[in-house]
Structures are given as C-alpha cells and as structure tokens.
Input
Amino acid sequence: MTRILPGVIAMATIVVASNILVQFLFGQWLTWGAFTYPFAFLVTDITNRLYGTGAARKVVFAGFVVGVICSFIGTQIIGEFGPLVTLRIAIGSGLAFLTAQLLDVAIFDRLRAGKWWRAPVVSTLFGGSLDTAIFFTIAFSTSLTFLEPVNDVSWAGEVLPLLGAGPEVPLWVSLAVADWLVKLCLALAALIPFRLIVGKLSQNTA
Output
C-alpha cells in the first residue's frame, strides 16, 4: 500500500480539485474542471506502468470513493438553481469515472509490451471517450429524465449549432464534444510527464 500512496493522494487531489473547479465556467462550453480531471488517467497509467494492474485498480477505487464523498457533499450545498450536485450528475460522474478508469487499466495492460507511448495514449483516448459519453448522457440527456423527474435539465436540450458553428444539436452534445476535445489534447500533452515520471521512478526502484 505504501508504494501506491503517492498515486492515491494524487488521484484524490485531482478528483477533489475537479469537483470544485467544475463549478466555474471557462468560456461557453467548458468548466475549469475539464482541464484537471483528465490527469486522473495520467495517475492511473503511471501506477499501471510501475506497479501493475492490481495497484492501478486500487488507485482507481480510491478515487471513486473520494468522488462519491464529493458528490454527497455537493448534494448538501444549495446553489442558485438547487443542489450543486444532482442525483443524475452523481450517478453519471461515479459510473463514468469507474467504468472509464477500469477500461483504461485493461487497455493499458493489453498494450503494455508495445512502444512506450502506445499504451498511455490509446488507453486514455478510449477511457476518456467513454467517460465523456457516459457522464453527459446520464447527466443531461432528456431521454433519461426518468432518473430524476424533479430535476429540470431542459436547458441542456436546447438545440443550438454544435460548438456554435456546426450542425444543430442539443446543447449537452456541444458540452460533451468540447470536454472530449480537451481530453484528447491533454492525453497527448500528458505523454511528456508520463515519460519523465516513469523514467525517474523506474530508476529509483531499480
């Protein structure tokens, strides 16, 4: 447990920071949380590379528990439009995190023996894409209003041009696409710290 403690702390920090920063808008389609949350995949991949799938899953489950706690706290804080975290957001967030992170762990392990960059890039892209799809669909799709009938998400179904310029789609689809594009960019950018951190820690444990 001691060897993965830094990973657990890093994952918990990212989850807490993202839950706070998601309350603050960045432009029209994003929140500041979109820029911190993807680094959860970096933590998982580093742990996976250094200590294997078992250790990576422990870090993931630790992050999931922290996320559940954050969601519970959010349901108790009443903002201008109601609780900061609704039931749909809590379900979407938890399910997206756990499913996407475990997929990331599995894909990374499958590609472990390939070129050093392949496993983190592919696993993060697939995991991040699934994360975005699950969260935004559960949290905002009008087809799932039965999950929380008292929660009015009609604003998310407003039909607008995709990211302000494309074909007309529900607003939540634009939010999801913007979130996914950030994950894509950060998956590539994260290769630099991945390479540096893994290289340094590998030398220390050699």
